[in-house]
Amino acid sequence: MTGFEDLAEGCISSILSRTTPVDAGRLSVVSKTFLSAADSDAVWNHFLPSDVNSIISQSPSLANAPSKKALYLTLSDRPIIIDDAKKSFQLDRKSGKKCYMLAARSLHIIWGDDDRYWIWTAMPDSRFPEVANLRLVWWLEIRGMINNLALSPNTQYAAYLVFKLIDGYGFETLPVDLSVGVEGGHSSTKIVCLDPNVERRQNSRHARFYGRADRVVGLPRPGVRSDGWLEIEMGEFNSGLENEEVQMSVIEIKAGETKGNFFLEGIEVRPKVDN
Questions:
Q1: Cβ contacts of 50 within 8 Å, gap of 6 or more
Q2: H or E segment and range at residue 183
Q3: pLDDT of residue 206
Q4: What is the pLDDT of residues 215-230, one digit of tens each?
Q5: Could you give the CA distance from residue 161 to residue 223 in angstroms, rounded to a whole number?
Q6: Where in the numbering of this chain does the F-box domain appear (predicted)?
Q7: Mean pLDDT, residues 2-25
Q8: Do 177 and 194 touch, CB atoms closer than 8 A?
């Protein structure tokens, strides 16, 4: 009786290409034939996005990747900078789905070109050449946009605000509105606190916060990413198949209170992973 491992390598490659990168890695240990098939360009080309050549054309070093598997692993290991440093691109290692970060330079920031309120500065731990440093504003409004067709189709995505607070102030008592939605269609808004250390800041400056601290009690707060930046989920959407613009916004314009020392790296859009 012929076993699965006795199939021709080309047949095994065809089967593996219909699984996932994780499955291909697991099945590669079955036999030498499976290992050869699981490492083949035929399999890993299927896991790469159809427009990968256009994307990596902006990163010449990747054109010399020794194999499709090597290219996949490189793209899933670290982001590449594209679109004149206004975006980064990466693959989700487990699924092969596309991930983008919109750099602060690609976002619409109210008063972002007025150095009384915002300045552009380099930070050594940022993937981008510069980030936006909020010095002081009363009116905080940041907007970004990405087209569904740039993303992996029919995929549930989430958008994340990526930033730092370095001696930040104002955010410990001010709720901020985060919104994600399709242009001209449905959008969802969540109210959050952008300061992860709100209790410590409030306790150290008790008089200033008296009577205002309860405005952020119980609100979602950011967490620390593996790269040291903070992030907080803005909302979810499904990429679908249509040519639609997904709009994302960060707004605090109600309180009329100052806030500052906020460093904006960008907005990341990546497949939603259920915990």
A1: none
A2: none
A3: 47
A4: 888 899 999 999 999 9
A5: 11
A6: 6-45
A7: 70
A8: no
Cα dihedral 144→147→151→157 (10° resolution): 50
Q: 218 near 159, Cβ under 8 Å?
A: no
Predicted confidence (pLDDT) per residue in 27-47, tens digit: 666 667 667 777 888 889 999
* Beta carbons of 264 and 154 less than 8 angstroms apart: no
Distance CA 44, CA 107 (A): 34
Residue 41, judged by CB atoms within 10 A of its CB (0-12, 13-18, 19+), counts as: middle
DSSP 34-75: HHHHHTSHHHHHHHS-TTHHHHHTTSGGGGG-SSHHHHHHHH
Q: What does the pLDDT read at residue 234?
A: 98
Domains of the chain: 7-77 (no CATH), 99-271 (2.60.120.260)
Give the global pTM.
0.90
What's the one-letter identity of residue 149?
Answer: L
User: What sign does the dihedral 105-242-56-28 (CA atoms) show?
Assistant: positive
**DSSP states of 103-115:** EGGGSEETTTT-T
